[in-house]
Design a protein that fits this description.
Blueprint: E1 10-15, H1 30-46, E2 49-54, H2 62-67, H3 72-96, E3 101-105, E4 114-115, H4 118-126, E5 130-134, H5 144-154, E6 159-164, E7 169-170, E8 182-183, E9 185-187, H6 188-193, H7 201-210, E10 213-218, H8 224-229, E11 236-239
Parallel strand pairs: 1-2, 1-6, 2-5, 3-4, 3-5, 6-10, 9-11
Antiparallel strand pairs: 7-8, 10-11
Helix pairs in contact: 1-3, 5-7
Length: 241
């Protein structure tokens, strides 16, 4: 398909750390990562510019460690390093499948990856490379959701794809409430007003202020990333109007 006919030419994919392990597991399941890489390659072949922000919760959660008594800054620094580990695993899987990839990190670690520089990231996207963004924002107290929103603005992404293990946004936890109602579309203000767990409030507000839509969808179903970018109505879209 010609990329000019796609609803989105440039997208930012936010992948939770849980996507790197088997259901209920921890660490990295390399078979799972390889399947994820295959889906990303399908998107890359469409001609969509794709940047990816990875989480690190499968390895370490800074917020949880902080609640258990660890210094918050140290805990968040460890969480940011966990995202780099996941990013390297994804980069390796993509490159083994001959997909040209670049990893950029907000924390300077030039032996492992390029430092995040906006112009450099844009150039990689323009050349058709998949860009993986690790290390969060490089600062404690900011989530990878906020990182995703910030990078989407900086890289002129038209949409944020929030890949989760549920098929959209509900008015209650569908795992606990059988009568939970799924939304197909929401406005940013309603997400904030009703405290719906899409992204954290800072990330949602940033998207609202800059009019960048968020699509929340189930990434455990093979092909869903591609379906969203082809314009299929799956999951829940959050936008201004």
């Amino acid at each position: 398909m010609n990329s000019t006919s796609l609803p989105f030419k440039r997208a930012l994919l936010k992948i939770t750390g849980e996507a790197f392990c088997s259901k209920g597991g921890q660490g990295i399941d390399f078979d799972v990562v390889r399947r994820l890489a295959l889906e990303i390659i399908d998107v890359n072949k469409l001609g969509v510019d794709l940047a990816i922000v990875v989480g690190g919760g499968n390895i370490f959660r800074g917020a949880v460690a902080s609640k258990m008594g660890m210094d918050r800054v140290t805990a968040d620094n460890m969480g940011m390093l966990a995202t780099v580990i996941n990013g390297l695993a994804l980069q390796n899987a993509l490159e083994e499948l001959e997909c040209e990839t670049r990893m950029l990190t907000a924390i300077d670690m030039h032996q492992l990856a390029e430092p995040y520089v906006r112009r450099r990231a844009l150039r990689h996207l323009e050349k058709g490379r998949v860009v993986i963004l690790g290390g969060g924002t490089g600062n404690p107290y900011f989530t990878t959701d906020t990182t995703a929103s910030l990078r989407a603005m900086e890289l002129s992404a038209e949409v944020i794809l929030k890949a989760t293990k549920v098929d959209g946004i509900y008015d209650a936890d569908p795992m606990k409430v059988s009568s939970a109602r799924k939304y197909t579309e929401l406005k940013f203000i309603d997400v904030l007003k009703n405290n719906l767990k899409v992204m954290d409030a800072a990330a949602t507000s940033l998207c609202m202020e800059n009019n960048v839509s968020i699509v929340v969808f189930n990434m455990t179903i093979t092909g869903n990333i591609k379906r969203v970018l082809l314009g299929e109505k799956i999951g829940t879209i959050v936008r201004e109007a």
